[in-house]
Amino acid sequence: MSELPRSEQDMAFARSFAEEYRGRFFDDADTLFPALEQHLNHYVASPKPFLPADLRRYFIDEIARARRVFDDGSAGILMLKQAGNGFGLDVIVDIFNESARRALSNWGRRTPDEHDEGRAGLPPLAPPLTDEWTDNVTSGPAPVRRATKQDGARSFLTLISDALRVSAGTAHSGGTGVYTANCNLKGWILETWPQFNYSPTRFGSRVTWPVTGTLPTSGNYMFQGLKGASVRHDPTPHYLGPSSAQTLVKL
Prior knowledge:
Elements lengths: L7 H14 L10 H12 L9 H20 L4 E4 L10 E2 L5 H8 L25 H8 L5 E4 L1 H20 L9 E6 L5 E6 L6 E2 L8 E4 L4 E9 L2 E11 L5 E4 L2
Parallel strand pairs: 4-10
Antiparallel strand pairs: 1-2, 1-3, 4-7, 5-6, 5-8, 8-9
Helix pairs in contact: 1-6, 3-6
């Protein structure tokens, strides 16, 4: 299933939180998630917080991960331009994520074993996080740009509040969190990332296809495939949740 549809009211909910809090994102670390939870409670007309503990922990951790990126971004925030979300927003890059650095460094590269039906070698090591790496990536073929912290905060807060709305709606559905991804190509390692932060992580333990893996919460996810030094991206968001336990990744 592609990205879960949103109403105009859903989009306004996410945008309003971002506008209210992007100026305070850097000062209110301890109060940001409670404010987001209260914002959601008001939107769904719930008199009190209703999120389970594991879901709360997941989003608190994701906010902390993003803040680490912003705290390091003295020269601006690196953002992925081909992010594929319904808001048309570029997405912050988790520069501390090794898969993100490796993928951006190898963007557009093709290797001989890419089209081989057999198993390819493991992806190369990620380049170290240096100013030189950032300069090379922003001047290379990867669709990334430098942005101000305010621009990055607007994107992150919009997309994470939308993700919380989606996941909260299915939090008590009793799903297992186990999903299956088919693929149009064989022999590729799949990685996935949530809509609000380009932070790829391995999906499943085998190469395509099919690949079965777990996700921390329901929501809209993006996929990419690795085969040796080659990286291919599926530009389409995929909704995975109780009503959609499998998807087709097109690399």
